[in-house]
Design a protein that fits this description.
The protein is α/β, with parallel strands linked by helices and about 290 residues long. The chain folds into two domains: about 200 residues, no CATH class; about 80 residues, 3-Layer(aba) Sandwich (Rossmann fold), CATH 3.40.50. Helices cover about 30% and strands about 25% of the residues. It contains nine helices and 13 strands. The strands form two sheets. The protein has an eight-stranded mixed beta sheet, sandwiched between helices. The chain has a five-stranded mixed beta sheet with strand order 9-13-12-10-11. A hairpin with a 2-residue loop joins strand 3 and strand 4. Helix 3 packs parallel to helix 5. The longest helix has 17 residues. The relative contact order is 0.17. The mean pLDDT is about 90.
Length: about 290
């Protein structure tokens, strides 16, 4: 009830914000590049599976590069995270999601940059044949193949600040593919190196998403804000408090915790994507190169 009252109170501000975003989209002049750009984004705040989706797509193409903003990183400007076969920086410079992608995709390159145009140009200079744009739906100045992901559950369908949407939901009509979690893509979860008493330690958006897959061996939870940074001593104390024998972490968390002297169990999150979706993207990439 409190949520509904607060959301209704903020609704006029949502209309103003949403209208501004609508005008921005309609006024945009789009720039075309000589290589296909596939954007994986969403209309809502919080996790919807973008990172594993990017990984799944990038693994399909030779010469694939990823350009991301690098949320949560402790650096600024353009940073080359990896080139095929080599990681070039640490996780503080890259951010957790970009490093997760770099480690999962040794044959691809990853760049982070607030200026996506600069990131795209650098990737092309380095030989990119296909570019995956992470969280790129709001980059309205670029011509690209738009994939929109929507999580399975939403509190409402209102625009910020009254709801989770960054633009009016009708903006989904601009997408080439609008995909719903649980419909066109589904999470597949497994646990590597489980122990008898695991402490979930995570800094992902909406950690409640993990609850359906947590085994009974999880004895507690250590939760940080999205992209938050872990402290080894605090984790060690939390493990002692819960009597935990290992930390249960996602791949996104592991890139920040892996250097700690603490036992880890891995919660592996992968996506099962409908073959029709993959065929559609493959066809776009092939036809773009044939132009």
């Amino acid at each position: 009830m409190v949520h509904k009252v607060c959301s209704s109170t903020l609704l006029p501000f949502s209309w103003l914000y949403g209208t501004g975003m609508w005008l921005r989209r309609k006024a945009a002049k789009r720039r075309r590049f000589p290589i296909p750009i596939v954007s994986i984004g969403n209309l809502v705040l919080g996790g919807s599976g973008k990172t594993p989706f990017v990984i799944a797509l990038a693994s399909r193409y030779e010469g694939a590069w990823i350009v991301s903003r690098g949320y949560g990183r402790r650096s600024r400007g353009l940073v080359e995270v990896s080139r095929p076969g080599k990681i070039l920086c640490d996780v503080e410079a890259s951010g957790d999601e970009a490093m997760e992608m770099a480690r999962a995709l040794p044959r691809c390159g990853v760049i982070v940059s607030e200026d996506r145009l600069a990131g795209i140009r650098r990737a092309m200079d380095l030989g990119a044949q296909v570019l995956l744009l992470d969280d790129g739906f709001n980059r309205v100045e670029l011509e690209k193949f738009e994939i929109l992901l929507e999580p399975e559950r939403l509190p409402n369908r209102r625009v910020l600040p009254a709801g989770p949407f960054r633009e009016f939901p009708s903006a989904s009509r601009e997408a080439d593919l609008w995909l719903k979690e649980g419909r066109e893509y589904r999470r597949e979860v497994s646990i590597k190196a489980p122990t008898e008493r695991m402490l979930l330690a995570t800094s992902i958006a909406r950690p409640e998403r993990l609850e359906p897959w947590l085994p009974r061996e999880v004895v507690g939870r250590f939760l940080l804000r999205d992209h938050g940074w872990f402290d080894e001593e605090r984790l060690r104390k939390a493990m002692r408090h819960h009597g935990a024998t290992s930390l249960l972490v996602t791949d996104k968390d592991a890139v920040k915790i892996g250097g700690f002297q603490l036992p880890l169990s891995r919660l592996k999150l992968q996506l099962a994507i409908d073959s029709g979706v993959l065929d559609t993207v493959d066809r776009y990439v092939k036809e773009y190169h044939a132009r």
